[in-house]
Amino acid sequence: MSSTKTVSEPVIPKANTRGRVILASLVGTTIEFYDFYVYATAAVLVFPKLFFPNADSTTQLLSSFAIFGVAFVARPVGSVLFGHFGDKFGRKGTLVASLLTMGIATFLIGCLPTAIVPGWTFLAPAMLVLLRFAQGLALGGEWSGAALLATENAPAGKRAIWGTFPQMGAPIGFIIANGLFLILNLTLTTAQFAAWGWRIPFLLSAIMVIIGLYVRLKLVETPAFQKVLDEGEVSKLPVGRVFRTSWQPLILGTFIMLATYVLFYLMTTFTLTYGTAAATLDAAKAAALKAGKPMSQSAIDAWVPGLGYSRNDFLLMLIVGVVFFGIFTLVAGPLAEKYGRRKSLIVITSAIFVFGFTFVPLFSAGFIGTQGLLIIGFILMGLTFGPMGALLPELFPTNVRYTGSAVSYNLSSVLGAAVAPFIAVALWQGAHGSTFLVGVYLSAMAVLTLIALFLMKETKDLDYNANVS
């Protein structure tokens, strides 16, 4: 990784207008994250009972989360696959392919028979694993491509600001996905939602994919990648080159993203599980009886208390929190441009470390405390996620930038996001309903990220368009 004070101004192609770049990077990641969140929400609300009907409630939930984690295992594979094509043949075509892959996989999940259907007891979960793998494969190539689309078209001195455009796809996709689930919960009965209503968000992804494809097909290659093409600097095997020449930023980038991933999936997937779990054993028994599946003795023995909110109430609380996520993602760009990526992220990650120790007092403070915890958590999420759209690509030279940023981003997803809900649920249940260890887990991940940030060099002033190995 090289750095210079002489910054070359990119020559932006006329087809890549500011509005078109913003829309193409934002729309694509919004669709991708929408599809991903649709599964994450269904994994908590309906999939445990639909795809693992014969297991107890704890095993159902952990099995659903295990399949949730399959996509994160697939993401590094997708980062190598799509990164190879993105660095060898171009950003545009690769982004179109990743979007198509995600859209098709999500649509097919909406068509999938459940394990309740005769003959599909084992086949349905197996097919869900396969389609979930395809989702992860696609997301492995989406984020870095969208980040490069924004930052490689950005004017000098505005990369961190333009880098927030694809980052906004995360909160917007979350709000659309969970807002749709909220509407369905309010308009359908529990039986209708479990029978067919959960399929609607998956099937609607087809419409959004068509819109995203239309926008992306209007673009041309970024000036940075076009420069690599013109100078004959295209890498024959990007993944080999990035591990050979850029292994240090690869490791740093992986751990720089770690606290961000753990924080987000604790704030979404885990809190939805914890927030909607019955607050008393009597309430849990009543809910199980209402669903037609009285609690077994093993389920009673394994039961731990949650907060007892209804699905609708807690989804609404999450949406309120995610609004702050979006606002502070936009705030993070100018801060990182003014103070530098390294300094701003050290301050924010230190705040995440402290935040981990507030779980017990805030969750114990009723509605105000819980909503406050979600808002604070999502504010920190926006502040830490916003600069990543510029920082991770800046760690790598142009001819391996797609692969390098994708691999580090998605390796971090395996170490952080893939296991975060699973570990958090295990810690919560192992502590008999206390969230203290869940908060300690977040703080520990923040320490690892802080170490990586202290080891990295500031990237704000490097010459992005001349940075070719």
UniProtKB/TrEMBL annotation:
CDD domains tied to this protein: MFS_ShiA_like
Iron-sulfur found in the keyword field: no
UniProt keyword annotation of Repeat present: no
UniProt organism field: Arthrobacter terrae
Biological classification of the source: Bacteria, Bacillati, Actinomycetota, Actinomycetes, Micrococcales
Name assigned to this protein: Putative proline/betaine transporter
Protein's job: May be a proton symporter involved in the uptake of osmolytes such as proline and glycine betaine.
Annotated localization: Cell membrane
Keywords: Cell membrane, Membrane, Symport, Transmembrane, Transmembrane helix, Transport
Pfam families reported for this sequence: Sugar_tr
Family (UniProt): Belongs to the major facilitator superfamily. Metabolite:H+ Symporter (MHS) family (TC 2.A.1.6) family.
Superkingdom of origin organism: Bacteria
Record PROSITE patterns: MFS, SUGAR_TRANSPORT_1
Chief place where the protein resides: membrane
Residues annotated as transmembrane: 21-40, 60-83, 95-116, 122-140, 161-184, 196-217, 250-267, 314-333, 345-368, 374-396, 408-428, 434-455
SUPFAM superfamilies for the chain: MFS general substrate transporter (SSF103473)
Boundaries of every Major facilitator superfamily (MFS) profile domain copy: 21-460
Molecular function GO labels: symporter activity
Membrane-protein topology: Multi-pass membrane protein
InterPro entries named among the record's database cross-references: MFS_dom, MFS_sugar_transport-like, MFS_trans_sf, Sugar_transporter_CS
GO cellular component term, pick one: plasma membrane
